[in-house]
Amino acid sequence: DRPALPDPLCLNPVGVIESDFPDKFGIPRQPGLATAARATLVLVPPYDDPLTVRGLSAFSHLWLTFVFHQSPERWTPLVRPPRLGGNARVGVFASRSTHRPNRLGLSLVELIDIDTSRGVRLTLRGADLVSGTPVLDIKPYLPWVESRPEARAGFAPEAPSTLAVGLSPEAEAALQCREDGDTLRELILQVLGQDPRPAYRRDAEARIYGVRLRDLDVRFRALQEPDGATRLEVVEI
Ligand code: SAM
């Protein structure tokens, strides 16, 4: 029998994400792969009562449960993890796919600050969430029970490899003019280092891609090095 759940399962977002990522394209596949990525979790009424976060600042990391609200409700039993090149298929429950029943996501993020001067706003680092993501729950991370370095991680045993990323002189000059130029440079290098190009396009002819980070459209292309390695170059910001 199906478990007895309140029907309809009444889940209300406790907050909404405002992040460096206005679009899904370009967001790293897991939190912590772009530690320069900033996000703010703005709690919504009635959860924006400062009492809800009393004691939370004593924890450095949080689990966020959220909804992949930009994914379709339709799901399939098999999915194609980008990590496997986009062709091999695994069961949806053997993946961290964004296309899943109930569309629930789980991210471990670093807590930087809590502002309760007007409602409750949590400043986070390393979130892999697009702006507007509804968050259903926040829990403090407990490393003594949840950090399991001995665990087997199937087809995703370690962080994905990264590409070398360069900045054209024009792009570098544009960063110099910005107050947040240093953190933005770090974010660009980390995000592009994850090679955000779609798996099926990675061998395609050189073309200019665009990824929006903060309020910028970062335009980049892939270059083949003499040794065959691929390097991404930011051509325009
Ligand atoms: N760490 C979470 C997990 O394991 O459940 C998310 C992993 S998922 C592979 C990360 C990707 O989700 C990002 O690269 C981004 O493209 C996508 N994403 C982020 N926010 C989303 C949203 N609100 N709706 C749909 N997709 C989203």
Fold and architecture overview:
This protein has 237 residues and is mostly beta strands. Helix content is 11%, strand content 30%. It is built from 3 helices and 12 strands; from the N terminus they run E-E-E-E-E-E-E-E-H-E-H-H-E-E-E. It has helices at residues 143-146, 169-176, 181-193; strands spanning 15-19, 38-43, 61-67, 78-79, 90-91, 104-115, 121-125, 134-140, 164-167, 209-213, 216-224, 230-236. The protein has a 6-stranded antiparallel barrel. Strand 6 (104-115) and strand 7 form a beta hairpin. Helix 2 (169-176) crosses helix 3. The longest helix is centred in the last third of the chain and has 13 residues, at 181-193. The model has no long low-confidence stretch (mean pLDDT 93). Residues 24, 27-31, 68-71, 96, 98, 105-107, 128-130, 133 line the site of S-adenosylmethionine. S-adenosylmethionine binds next to strand 6.
Throw out a few tags for this protein:
237 residues; six-stranded antiparallel barrel; four-stranded mixed beta sheet; globular; binds S-adenosylmethionine; UPF0066_cons_site; YaeB-like_sf; YaeB_N_sf; S-adenosyl-L-methionine; tRNA (N6-threonylcarbamoyladenosine(37)-N6)-methyltransferase TrmO
Bin the strand percentage. 25-35%
Structural class: mainly beta
Please outline the major beta sheet.
6 strands, antiparallel, barrel
Q: On the 0-100 scale, what is the average pLDDT?
A: 93
Between the first and last Cα atoms, what is the distance in angstroms? 55 Å
Poorly predicted regions = none
Radius of gyration: 19 Å
**Total number of helices:** 3
InterPro entries: TrmO-like_N (IPR023370), TrmO_C (IPR041369), UPF0066_cons_site (IPR023368), YaeB-like (IPR040372), YaeB-like_sf (IPR036413), YaeB_N_sf (IPR036414)
Protein name: tRNA (N6-threonylcarbamoyladenosine(37)-N6)-methyltransferase TrmO
Domain TsaA-like: 11-150
Organism: Halomonas aquatica
